[in-house]
Amino acid sequence: MKPETTADPIRVQYGERAGIMNVAVKVDTVYIVDDDRGFRESLTALLIGAGYRVRSFDSTKRFLAEHDPTTPGCLLLEVCMPGMGGLELQRLLMNSRCPRPIVFLSSTGEICICAQAMKNGAVDFMMKPIDGGRLLEAVGQALQRDSGERRQRAVRSIIRERYARLTKRERQVMEHVVSGRLNKQIAGVLGVGEKTVKVHRGRVMRKMAVDSLPELIQVSARMGLINDVGP
User: From CA 227, how far away is CA 30, in angstroms rounded?
Assistant: First the structure.
């Protein structure tokens, strides 16, 4: 299932300006982590038949050692396994630089486990035996989420790189601008002339590659300089 296109103007704008929208994207990979070999083989056949690339592992330890976090994809994860269990791996990935969407698979119906997995952001939690149609639907949803999150991270990285190019004074002006202060007010706070503020403001707009104040506010929100203001 291909990810839906987004109407987010900042994401599209920054993607186009940085070439993100046009670069070759790695093929999505579905990772399977389950200590049941027969089950892994059955899932692998189903997913390959649906057109996915698949990599399977018999333990969370092997998955962590061998998977490539930069490769787009999702994870089908058994909850209960020897050593590190599924919930522990989920928490580990949540705190990593490249978290991966997870569909949990389980032979146990403990409500507390399911609730914790979903609370931590799992795409779905399925009981074995697995319904093939539901699984493929969940995989499609997980891959859509992964694509969107990766694009968001790429855009935030571009924004941070642009922000790093600003001088100290330009950053000060930017922070005052997105806070809603007028040029005259900023000049008074910084102890400089209003024309100087206008010059710095223009440089900020060019370096941050935005054309309007609303766009500057949005990129500032994505860096965490202000609270997220939405699209």
Answer: 35
Local confidence band at 227 (pLDDT 50, 70, 90 cut-offs): low
Residues 65 and 129 in one domain: yes
Would 187 be classed as within a structural domain? yes
- What's the whole-model pTM score? 0.70
Please tell me whether residues 129 and 176 are part of one structural domain: no
Tell me the β-bridge partners of 207: none
By CB neighbour count within 10 A (0-12 exposed, 13-18 middle, 19+ buried), where does 204 fall? buried
Residue 56, beta-bridge partner list: 32
Shared domain for 74 and 174, answered yes or no, is no
Residue in the block written with tokens 């089908």 = 76
Give residue 216's domain range: 165-223
Token representation of residue 32 = 């399977």
How many structural domains compose the chain?
A: 2
Q: Environment class of residue 123 by beta-carbon count within 10 Å: exposed (0-12), middle (13-18) or buried (19+)?
A: buried
pLDDT band at 229 (very low <50, low <70, confident <90, very high): very low
| Structure-token pair, residue 157 | 């990285």
Whether 134 and 201 map to the same domain: the answer is no
- What SS3 class is residue 173? helix
